[in-house]
Amino acid sequence: MSPDAPKSTRLFFREAIARALAEAMHADPRVVILGQDVGPLGGAYREFAGLHATFGASRVRDMPVAENAMVGIGVGAAAAGLRPLVSITYMDFVMLALDPLVNYGAKLRYKTGGQLHAPVVVKATAGAKGQGVAHSQSLESWLVGVPGLTVVAPSNAADAYGLMGAALDHDGPVVYVDHKRLFPTAGDVPDAPVRVPIGRATVRRRGDNATIATHSYGCRIADAAADRLAAEGIRCEIVDLRTLAPLDVATVASSAARTGALVTLEEGQLPCGLGAELAYRVREEIGPIRVARIGAAPAPISGNRLLEAATLPSVEDVVVAVRRLLERPATNPRTR
Amino acid sequence: MSPDAPKSTRLFFREAIARALAEAMHADPRVVILGQDVGPLGGAYREFAGLHATFGASRVRDMPVAENAMVGIGVGAAAAGLRPLVSITYMDFVMLALDPLVNYGAKLRYKTGGQLHAPVVVKATAGAKGQGVAHSQSLESWLVGVPGLTVVAPSNAADAYGLMGAALDHDGPVVYVDHKRLFPTAGDVPDAPVRVPIGRATVRRRGDNATIATHSYGCRIADAAADRLAAEGIRCEIVDLRTLAPLDVATVASSAARTGALVTLEEGQLPCGLGAELAYRVREEIGPIRVARIGAAPAPISGNRLLEAATLPSVEDVVVAVRRLLERPATNPRTR
Amino acid sequence: MSRLALLRSMLAIRAFEDALAVHPECGFQLLSSGEEALAVGVCAALTSDDQLLSSGRSIGPALARGLDPGAVMAELLGRATGPCKGKGGRGHLAQPSAGFFGAHAVVGGNLSIAAGVALAMQVERRPGIVVCIFGDGACGAGALHETLNLAALWKLPLLFACDNNGWSISTPRARALAPRRLSDLATPFGIPAVTVDGMDVLAVRDATQRFAERARAGEGPAFLEGVTERFATHSTATRETRSADEMAAIRARCPIRRLAATLERDGELDAAGLARLERDAADAALRAVRFAEASPPADIAEIARDVA
Amino acid sequence: MSRLALLRSMLAIRAFEDALAVHPECGFQLLSSGEEALAVGVCAALTSDDQLLSSGRSIGPALARGLDPGAVMAELLGRATGPCKGKGGRGHLAQPSAGFFGAHAVVGGNLSIAAGVALAMQVERRPGIVVCIFGDGACGAGALHETLNLAALWKLPLLFACDNNGWSISTPRARALAPRRLSDLATPFGIPAVTVDGMDVLAVRDATQRFAERARAGEGPAFLEGVTERFATHSTATRETRSADEMAAIRARCPIRRLAATLERDGELDAAGLARLERDAADAALRAVRFAEASPPADIAEIARDVA
Ligand SMILES: Cc1ncc(C[n+]2csc(CCOP(=O)(O)OP(=O)(O)O)c2C)c(N)n1
Ligand SMILES: Cc1ncc(C[n+]2csc(CCOP(=O)(O)OP(=O)(O)O)c2C)c(N)n1
Ligand SMILES: [Mg+2]
Ligand SMILES: [Mg+2]
Contact, B219 vs B155, CB < 8 A? Predict the structure, then answer.
């Protein structure tokens, strides 16, 4: 590392979240945390470790199992001047809180003609890791069409830090989607209090044969697939979406225009998913292009290890999809 | 009408629903209705008129404002042997009931290895008609990706009848999406107890210049647009999706293959919407094709008459989209 | 607030709604007529530090809180001069700068929001308290339970004000709600609760005052149930399900006539005085209508503003 | 059910979980150890007409209800011979044919489902009743309120059985729930409610019996709170937040040792007899493990079966 390079520290994803929160709470007394087991336990994934000890029970509040009121209170407090983060341990249970989030929070600025707005961050953990049909869902695609909602989804420790800062700065409701399998991953996080800008995707890996557009844990799957494909001489470009609403279509489109092939990868269900949306928007930008989309098999995600693995998108799925896409001539009318 | 033609009776959409329910309740004592104001009032739109008088308070149950428990009880009763219909007056409030519907009902057959299943119909009214930001949403696209859920959406009285019968017959959870603006529309409904098969779209209007794929009230918008375009010599084919999950892609694709242009029309938001899904699936089937999608403007739907009208997709929007699409050469790489 | 001021406030609501109901652009509205005493009695105990939230039946609460009737009428009739620029309407009327944090048309949906506003006040040690007015219908919703529990645990400065008009659209309270008194719902949480005659504005005011003092002193939430009557149909678009006899009995409980009678008995008002107050209220309502009518409609460009 | 049978049932659960916890494929499980008396006492009052539902902490309830331990172990270890073919696992274990309608891992999520099952029985005039076992954690959820209200209104044959082990993961009940007794939550709805020592299997059984009789007679729902102790960490993947001292005090309340002591005092059991029962339980657990181990894993083709 050159002496002028920005300094950074290797942190676990979960530590990067805790650091962003600690800094925000030091800087702004309006930042409070509401969630189940966020207090002395420090969060189901230790992503709130140390905050209760530092900031006390008034600012780091353990809550009962009451997701509707948790988010309602967070949104209401935000509208009245605080900047709360509400932690929903499993994204599945965002369902219980969609009413305050979507029917109130997302519409507040609009319906009051700008008099009120709700700078609340709802942090929800998506992804499957052995916990069964009701603790494993990735529901991002439901949220990206809600006017007034911003949705971000970091894929690594640096973005976990930088997007959390940006989400807490944002003057409207943000859903911050993390992933069970990312918490124990480590990465270099800049020591400076940098933000990852909302609304901007980034190219994680350069390649000129195919573009893989994905987010969150999908970036790690894509990277493993790209490694395998590189051994065959296929160079994949990986675009990490980072923000899902608003989507940075331009970055995906310009990569896809260059590579001529687009594979989308998400852990959620495919129908009306992010892949469908990206394919539409990219084709709208650059015209016909070969596209394949990858997501979960159309089934609930069992906690059974074998069934879960068979349901989730895999490295192999990506490898096969890229290979098949490239076997097709670019002008082939069948873009399956 | 030839003497052999099936007999039919002109009914309002709301009457067609009531007739289907009455017949099902006569035929099967397990059919019960749960909902707010479904009893003596006969439903917010009179779609349950007469049922309480005929079948009594034990089978037509007025419920408190408790959408979560309403659907939970409906799903639980279905799993235990009844065949309930649960009425959610505004689709917006399906949000409050997604947990029992999606986390339990939709997954029940799977998670129990086939031991249990939940033949429940959740009837929800979508669409905007002057009632404001939290009573106007069309959220179909959230549901179509949920494994285990069937979603139907009639556009006219005959289908309101035929799809209700099919939904009540179905051995799993069905969301039956109707629309505020359809209840007072009238149509011929066959006197015979016919079913509209789940999973099959239908061509409502023949044309060979462009395909409009839509559902529910969108069919009426599309028809008005097709009338206007016909005056200009543009003949539109209208595909009424009728079932949204599973989608009948084949019918849309074969129409679009013939016309060479596809316009999708939905009242919900565009991102990760039905239009994106249809565009993806149709292109997957038939290769590059000109597509335009139409939906609500990206804003909450105000109860204000003027703002509501400006937010909802209009006849004019469809006319313009079809015209623009046809101005483009079929091979133009920009398929916007 | 003097008893005469309470009467004026109730008359203002009644006259405002009478004018609105006959207006050609009235559209879909939920009227508060009959239930004025609940809103007026509650607001009489509030200061400018406080915030009020309501259900979609918001006209009474908004006017009782002191919002400008012209601006409210403009909002209801979709004019750009409404506090929400005509975008919110009845169901989402709001003017937080005037202490009315707002209506929310989701039944029970404003309860946890109100608790959030109260939490913000508590955390920032601001002087205000929060009142949430909700209907009996909201008492079936789980949101009430979740919010009562958290308000009690955290001793939030929050008053739950249940406007129990006995109906959720066409469903009588007894067919929707098992508790004998709705205020009993607060008891398990250790929240002080009382049921008063919601047609008696003085009883409502006094009960609110007591609870407000506790809340201001940091002693936490309270639950006030006022038993009221809805004079109109559920909404201007809903058919009436109650019989003419029932309606006559209901209208006989008029909270305005009741307070006026008390004041007449006590010699503070006579028939002429009442007529004058009624005329004043009608004039004010007319001015509100005129203001709204003279205002431009909501700007269509607003659909692209204040979205995110 | 005799007291000896109750003891055997509790021993079976304990031994089963001891065997599971040390199994290399144990994975993510929520154990019932310490809370056996609640499940066993409740199930002692049930007949084959009845249905039991539970939270995700389902092993105690499922075994107490009489499910075959081998099949349960197979389900927990992901084998095709589990009643759900290995697709449900702990959080969604079910065998309705054996009177166990099933576990549901959403906290509070099984309450309204249970009410639906009870409604089906009521509408079809079937003889059974329904019991839903849920944790103290579920008492913060609005689903409880909504379900209590409807169960009371409709007089559903439904018993709410709250297994109050004092914790929701790391959060002590007092920091999450305001009510003094959780059974108080039923009172506003007119639902009879009682709090018993959930470590006393006889007290649980007797209370359940009384409530079950009422429900069978068509007199409607009831609420039973049993105060219990969780011996293990929240899940096999969660870290312990309680001190060693606390844990020692908790383990001293063992419901099994308590009943055994009573039986010894009454001369119905001696140390040798208890040792024999323990050995029997351990053997049965071992057989369950063997059965599961000998069973094929869930069939991957199952991901395409029973979806819709
Ligand atoms: C969650 C939800 N469900 C249903 C509705 C439809 N709805 C509008 S007003 C109303 C009745 C509410 O009754 P209550 O709370 O007593 O208020 P009131 O109308 O009597 O003032 C209902 C069911 C809604 N707005 N919100
Ligand atoms: C709706 C919901 N929110 C959060 C969770 C995560 N969760 C799983 S178990 C649990 C604790 C529940 O406590 P309790 O109901 O007392 O049951 P116990 O674990 O003590 O048996 C939580 C919060 C969940 N499963 N469901
Ligand atoms: Mg009411
Ligand atoms: Mg517990």
Answer: yes
